[in-house]
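(Deposited chain)
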Amino acid sequence: MAKQQLAVFITLLAFVGPAACQQKGLHICFNGWLKVPSLLSYLLCPPGSRTTNPPPTSSPTTPAPPSGAELSYDYYNNNGSSSYCPSAESLVKDAVKKAIDMDPGHAANIYSSSTEIFVCDDMVNFQGCDASVLLNTTTSKDSPTDTEREGPPNKNSLRGFEVIDAAKAAIEAACPRTVSCADIVAFAARDASSLLSYGSINIRMAGGRLDGRVSFANETDQLPGPFSSLAQLQSSFREKGLTSDEMVTLSGAHSIGKAHCGFFSDRLPPNPSTMDYAFATELEVKCEDNEANMVDQDYQTAYVLDNKFYENVRANKVLFDSDDALKTVREVKQNAEYPEIWERKFEKAMENLGRLVDVKSRREGEIRETCWRVNGY
């Protein structure tokens, strides 16, 4: 959702009061997705009005390890099992590569989209990777605006669904009702990472997930946003069993892709900001006072997945408040100076992210025939 639209919501809520924070389908108290004065934030969303989350299962200093013990590598290569589909992973890679080859200029968008879908699916709700972010039709027969896909942090932001749909269509033709959309999302993120890093990043991604049958827009408030503080970022990842180092490592994905000017316009002149002034001035020209305009997230190598993001953090040449918040973390220096160390850490962090899954029983989950709707609807 464009920032100007969010501004309208804020204005309306200022008149209708904090109760609106719990209106059906309208949750504005996102974790770092709104940049509002602290007093206004308190008035709009006082304590108790936010969506409440179960307490983390671990202490702040000892994160619980990612789950997903039921997952396995080469899951679809087990001849004789009901999950046998030896072409599954190659068909996903073909779909990702074809999308990149057809439109090289948008390769970064394809990468950032596939990875964002993967991250948003894993970080939202307490069931992890279940492809719920792809749904616009669920068992509850909610309207499309009630699903994660239409939640304010995702709406008009997540793209690349057509790549997932193309992979699913090819797999259904080869192995009907065998490969989950959740696994396709995970494999697509893996393959896009490899292709856009020119083979420098190769993630081991297990399979065996089932697709969820519910999806709720109001659960997208768990996603860390562009205005998140360091404490908010660490808390979001800690609640999923991921460490602060993994949070910093995964933030390196901001070395590729584009961002709406509305998510960092408050850091541009004449506003006070820690952003490098010359860099901020260049961005101001590109944004042209239009918050819907988009710019590259990495000014150095905008179409390559690499460690340049960390160099940008140290040089005060990053877009978001949440990126700038990382400059005090010691791992940023290491990631900037030793690209191979960051690549190996990124591989492992993505693998762990993919294991944030409560593998469902056949009663609770399914293998969707079409990724954007549950079976039978």
The beta strands are 258-260, 294-296. The first strand starts at residue 258 and ends at 260.
